[in-house]
Amino acid sequence: MAKQRVLVTGGAGYIGSHTCKLLATEGYDPIVVDNLSTGNKWAVKWGPLEICDIRDNDALSLVMAKYKPVAIAHFASCCYVGESVENPEKYYNNNVSGMLSLLKTMNRNRVRKIIFSSSCSTYGNPQYTPIDEGHPQTPINPYGFTKYICERILSDYHRTQDIEFIALRYFNAAGADPEAEIGELHEPEPHLVPRILDAALGKADHFLIHGTDYDTDDGTCVRDYVHVLDIAKAHLKAIEHIFKFNSAEFINLGNGSGFSVKEVVNKVLEITGCKIKVIEGDRRDGDPAILISDSQRASEILDWSPDYPDLTSIIGHAWQWHRSKKSDS
Ligand SMILES: NC(=O)c1ccc[n+]([C@@H]2O[C@H](COP(=O)([O-])OP(=O)(O)OC[C@H]3O[C@@H](n4cnc5c(N)ncnc54)[C@H](O)[C@@H]3O)[C@@H](O)[C@H]2O)c1
């Protein structure tokens, strides 16, 4: 029987590429659509790469007509909170227009199912933790607003145009492929774990902590780190779910435990044995003190639980890949 094709927007990026590997392992055919704005060609290894901007309706429609996917895994987006505060237009344009273009093209090609990469940033400053899906959504930066708007668009299209969706609200993705074939590489790198690892490898002179006066045990921000492979696994489960049920779901993805920036630095020191120059700087705009997920719904609806909930695996795998990483050639 022919493999079922899943069109993966942003499949050359960090989480998308790990999901492609798992999709291929589980018998799907991942078709990557990516404009390579932050993704890497070398990370596309498990199916074809169509270089295309999802806002280009006609080009995207040709890709859908060519491959006839059964579902979409939609990762393509601008993803940096700080940049979104500086340049909101870029975020509303790419993330919201991108979603509208994708849905229009899905309608044109009669593709009805979509798994969307949403974010815990839709919640804003938490009123309580752990954060469940019923927590009020009051984003505090343009990135979070774009994800929130995309969720609302999906709800409206579900109501009026038969679009079925599962929006996965990830907390902090981290870690790498345990076989070290792929991992996280952005230029510049905004994410915490690879930034600390760059400092450990001497690729960065120091690691800067953004704020040490938060209302947390050690004064640094606390986040819920979820292994990238566990996020990939949730996509597999979401695809299985959306084939069985007429879905319109919002589901958190996190481990349910929080680690402070200083705790992550200490774990990197322990795992790598390297020295790191740590500088304590000021807070950044748009960073809540604590973000921890209640992932009960992921367990109930998707039968999902993390395989790698511990910081040692998450950082160990990231370190293993980081040491061996090759740049695009
Ligand atoms: N990394 C995290 O911790 C995290 C947390 C919550 C949500 N998310 C979401 O998960 C998704 C994937 O994040 P990531 O960390 O892998 O980011 P990433 O930057 O590594 O991947 C995004 C990919 O999308 C591509 N892309 C961007 N705009 C595009 C467009 N208009 N057309 C085609 N391709 C386009 C980029 O080239 C890149 O390959 C994003 O939607 C992000 O908002 C990530």
Describe the structure.
The protein is α/β, with parallel strands linked by helices. It has a domain at 4-176 and 225-255 and 293-307: Rossmann fold (3-Layer(aba) Sandwich), CATH 3.40.50. The chain has 10 helices and 14 strands. The chain has helices at residues 14-25, 57-67, 81-86, 88-108, 142-161, 192-200, 228-244, 261-272, 296-302, 311-324; strands at 4-9, 28-34, 49-51, 71-74, 113-119, 164-170, 172-174, 207-210, 222-223, 225-227, 248-253, 259-260, 278-281, 290-291. The strands form 4 sheets. A 7-stranded parallel β-sheet has the order 3-2-1-4-5-6-11, sandwiched between helices. It has a 3-stranded mixed β-sheet with strand order 12-9-14. Helix 5 (142-161) links the parallel strand 5 and strand 6 (164-170). The longest helix has 21 residues, at 88-108. The two termini are 36 Å apart. The model has no long low-confidence stretch (mean pLDDT 95). Bound molecules: nicotinamide-adenine-dinucleotide. Nicotinamide-adenine-dinucleotide (NAD) is lined by residues 9-10, 12-16, 34-39, 53-55, 75-77, 79, 94, 98, 117, 119, 170, 172-173.
Question: What is the structure about, briefly put?
Answer:
With 329 residues, the protein is an alpha/beta fold.
SSE diagram, text form:
Elements: E1 4-9, H1 14-25, E2 28-34, E3 49-51, H2 57-67, E4 71-74, H3 81-86, H4 88-108, E5 113-119, H5 142-161, E6 164-170, E7 172-174, H6 192-200, E8 207-210, E9 222-223, E10 225-227, H7 228-244, E11 248-253, E12 259-260, H8 261-272, E13 278-281, E14 290-291, H9 296-302, H10 311-324
Parallel strand pairs: 1-2, 1-4, 2-3, 4-5, 5-6, 6-11, 7-10, 8-13, 9-14
Antiparallel strand pairs: 9-12
Helix pairs in contact: 1-7, 2-4, 4-5, 6-8, 6-10, 8-10
The structure holds nicotinamide-adenine-dinucleotide (NAD).
Nicotinamide-adenine-dinucleotide binds at residues 9-10, 12-16, 34-39, 53-55, 75-77, 79, 94, 98, 117, 119, 170, 172-173.
